[in-house]
Amino acid sequence: MIAHSGDGAAGRERDGTAVTRRSVIGGVVGAGLLEVLGFGSPFQSGAMADAAPVAPLFTADAPHVYTRAQWRARPPKRAARILGRAPDHIVVHHTDTANSADLTVAHAFSLSRYIQNFHMDKRGWDDCGQQLTISRGGVVMEGRNRSLASVREGDLAVGAQVLHHNEHTIGIENEGNYMKKAVPGRLWSSLTEVCVWLCRAYDLDPAEAIVGHRDYNTTSCPGDVLYSRLPALRRAVAARLEGSGGKPKSKPKAPPKPDDPGDYYQDDDGDDWPGLLNLNW
User: Fold this and answer.
1) Contact of 43 with 32, CB cutoff 8 Å
2) Which residue from 168, 169, 122, 132 is spatially nearest to 267, judged by alpha carbons?
3) Contact status, residue 213 vs residue 162, Cβ threshold 8 Å
4) Residue 60 pLDDT grade (very low, low, confident, very high; cuts 50, 70, 90)
5) Taking 60 as the threshold, does the pLDDT of residue 29 lie above it?
6) Which domains does the chain have, with CATH numbers?
7) Are strands 264-266 and 272-274 parallel, antiparallel or unpaired?
8) 248 close to 207: Cβ distance less than 8 angstroms
9) Mean pLDDT over all residues of the chain?
10) 271 has a pLDDT exceeding 70
11) pLDDT given for residue 235 in this prediction
12) How many Å from the N-terminal Cα to the C-terminal Cα in the chain?
């Protein structure tokens, strides 16, 4: 989420075991060459991406991910560090922003710019903390620089989205606050597709790999409602993998214990910044 729910986080280092075996990513990523149900190309007749009214519905295992160039990201302060190995967990966040009714691609792009500006200007980070962002309209966007290329290669572009656990996790920001409100259908569908894609790309078992931010740090993120749906998300992703021959390979493990409470978050350089409250726009 944009500021980790404002609850604070402090933590212990975790010795995560890297997954090194890679599998082929099905479908086409990033470039937008994905057939969509009833929508055709995300770019109609050469129009700009942000002219599309709503996000396309996914019908393939590799979602259409809008690039940083498409949502007009700022240059990062420095390029993301790339680890030549896969993450072992997919961390689900919520942005703790307003539950907007605007489902357009233009709104999604403005969300990504808002997050980037907040992380760089208020947090002092190098770039967006998370690797991927999903709007309430189901629009999927690249977050931290070099993230899409890293997923394609089975590597990890190190983010700044989970205190003390950035070197073995990949993070997905989901627009909205889900402490009490239901998760929109389009967002949920996109989140499922993204998790299928990542589990295939990194050869992960969803029963073990998909966790919430609160599993690592003391925070309300990703909200009580979304967190309660993570078991259903794991099952849905596993079913998709089973149906396509990508069977999970390991038994489920208990999620990691939350870190000790605190009121600080770590930036890219390892320094701590005070948590901020009430971040709805």
Assistant:
1) yes
2) 122
3) yes
4) low
5) no
6) 4-268 (3.40.80.10)
7) antiparallel
8) yes
9) 77
10) no
11) 98
12) 13
pLDDT tens for each residue of 69-108: 999 999 999 999 999 999 999 999 999 999 999 999 999 9
For residue 59, give Cα distances in angstroms to 12, 88, 189, 190, 203: 40, 26, 10, 10, 21
Q: Mapped to the 3 state alphabet, what secondary structure does the chain carry?
A: CCCHHHCCECCCCCCCCCECCCCCCCCCCCCCCCCECCCCCCCHHHCCHHHCCCCCCECCCCCCEECCCCCCCCCCCCCCCEECCECCEEEEEECCCCCCCCCCHHHHHHHHHHHHHHHHHHCCCCCCCCCEEECCCCCEEECCCCHHHHHHHCCEECCCCCCCCCCCEEEEEECCCCCCCCCCHHHHHHHHHHHHHHHHHHCCCHHHHEEEHHHCCCCCCCCHHHHHCHHHHHHHHHHHHHHCCCCCCCCCCCCCCCCCCCCEEECCCCCEEECCCCCCC
As a whole-number percent, the residues of the chain with pLDDT over 70 amount to: 65
Gap between the Cα atoms of 269 and 114, Å rounded: 22
Maximum Cα–Cα distance across the chain:
53
Summarised one tens digit per residue, pLDDT across range 36-45 is 333 333 333 3
Per-residue burial over 148-165, b if 16 or more Cβ lie within 10 Å, else e, is bebbebbbbbbbbbbbbb
Whether 50 shows a pLDDT value over 90: the answer reads no
Q: Pull the structure tokens for residue 16.
A: 């995560």
Full-model pTM: 0.74
